[in-house]
Amino acid sequence: MLMKQKRVMDLLNKTRKPMSSAELHNELDFPVDSPELWDMLLHNEKVLYDERTRRFSYRAKHALEDRREMLALIQRHPDGVLLDDVVDAYPTAIDDAEQLIADGLILALHNAETRERVVYPVDEAYEHAETEDAVAGLFHDVAIPAEDPAWDAALRAVGAEPAPRRAAVGRRGGEGSDSDEEGAGERRARKRKKRAVNFERMKVTNAHLPELFKKPQVERLDG
Hints:
This protein has helices spanning 2-15, 21-28, 35-42, 67-75, 83-87, 93-102, 133-140, 149-157, 184-192, 209-214, and strands at residues 47-50, 55-58, 81-82, 106-110, 117-121. It has 223 residues and is mostly helical. A three-stranded antiparallel sheet has the order 3-5-4. It starts with a helix and ends in a 9-residue tail after the last helix.
């Protein structure tokens, strides 16, 4: 039933026109008026059923028809709107959204936690704001630690979840890297050491093959 429900939703999303149960049956080759499937469709937030016309249609979160209405919607939400909800409004909405981003009329950022794209209106009040070089220098001179438990705890205390940090990889010889630890070279050598083939744990089809591999192996083909 879940697959049938998805096929109904995909068809309504593709056609973007109201369809009766008979029309859906003709297109999908299965009836949609079975009690279980009918109930699922009536309670699906992406499906709208008109009691008057007795037709199903796709229901997007935002009722938009073109790029102008899309921009107006985003401008009414200074805290941002999920891009997925915006581009679900009509078939070519993704193209209009990307064009608005390219034209500099809206901004698109990734949510640090969900990685979903969020679009924001561009506030013209900040377009021509100027910052003195001394002030900008103070901003860039602030050192941001790779990890600050006290700062994270302060953010959580006010209900804000800290943005995830990327794990630092000790490849530059910094503090805590393998190059500073005693015996690092020995560990790397052990990693490069080849393991002997354990033929007792392998299924060998030809009895003479193990003898070939137990002999010293050639390291290079060019000698």
